Amino acid sequence: MTEPNKMENFISIGELARLTGITTHTLRVWEKRYGSPSSQRLPSGHRRYPKEDVPRLRAVAKALGSGYRASKVVPGTLEELHGLMGLQHLINKTANPDQKNSSNELVIERWIKLIHDFDDDALLQSFHEKWSQFGPLKLIVDLMVPLIERIGKGWECDELTISQEHFATECISSFLTSKWRQLNIRKEGWTILMATLPGETQSLGLLMAAVVASLSGGKIIYLGIDTPLEDIISTAINQKPELLCFSISCILNPLDTEEKILRISNELQNEVTIICGGKGTPENFPSINKIEDFNLFNKWLEKFEEQLPTAV
């Protein structure tokens, strides 16, 4: 530990954030994830950070603003960062995906901070703002999917508590539900039945699929999670949807999943197209269409709708 007479060379995380323009939450995440910035712990348990790291962190912030990924620049030395930025003018200006990813990462980290604070008003307001800015599909693909993955990693490494994870899930669920229902109002014509298999407890995948599906002309009938097999089958028989959509997570037993899908397919006598997404979807399984991501799902729906009879 640094000697007491040298502690004037160290500052609090709040002061470090003020001097660099990087939030305290982001600094803590970086320290835990990348080991940078490094801190010294006082006998009181408080952490202090070296003042000499301020120029380097300012360079990190500048590099992030220029499109570099956090994983590439946060651990870097000041000399390495200056080298990167010195070559920036030689980089093709079409390298916008990195800049977009960096910007999206900052948005997600701000959301994680709001989740830490249980600030549902600010979190939901930001969701609505990004919906208006990005549009439904890009919001799902560029922000919601990475946010959910980030929450999962945060929970696994004890950065987020169970209560914070539940809080975040509830906020995301209520937001997505309100959006797909708005888009589903007053639709007529062909229908999409959406559900999960019995035993499924994960709802966010199906809700994101509902948002994407609501961009099509199909009317959504939403059964939600952990739907009994008999109810899925009877609803499909009675409502006669053109499309039956499942979200399948990896918490389900693969053999049970295949057995249930096969039973549904046999009971419906292949009269409805079945589409499945999620990490638990069986590979190369007959009677279903497996979709890998939401961009592909959107394109698949466009082609599916084009092939429907005009009378539908």
What this model shows, in words?
There is one protein chain. With 312 residues, the chain is an alpha/beta fold. It has 3 domains: 4-90, Multidrug-efflux Transporter Regulator, Chain: A, Domain 2 (Orthogonal Bundle); 97-178, Methionine synthase domain (Methyltransferase, Methionine Synthase (B12-binding Domains), Chain A, domain 1); 186-307, Cobalamin-binding domain (Rossmann fold), CATH 3.40.50. The chain has 13 helices and 8 strands. It has helices at residues 13-20, 24-34, 54-65, 70-73, 78-86, 96-116, 120-134, 136-156, 162-184, 204-213, 229-239, 254-267, 294-307, and strands at 10-11, 40-41, 47-50, 191-195, 219-224, 243-247, 273-277, 289-291. A 5-stranded parallel beta sheet has the order 5-4-6-7-8, sandwiched between helices. It has a 3-stranded antiparallel beta sheet with strand order 1-3-2. Helix 10 links the parallel strand 4 (191-195) and strand 5. It is elongated, with a radius of gyration of 24 Å. The protein starts with 9 loop residues before the first strand and ends in a 5-residue tail after the last helix.
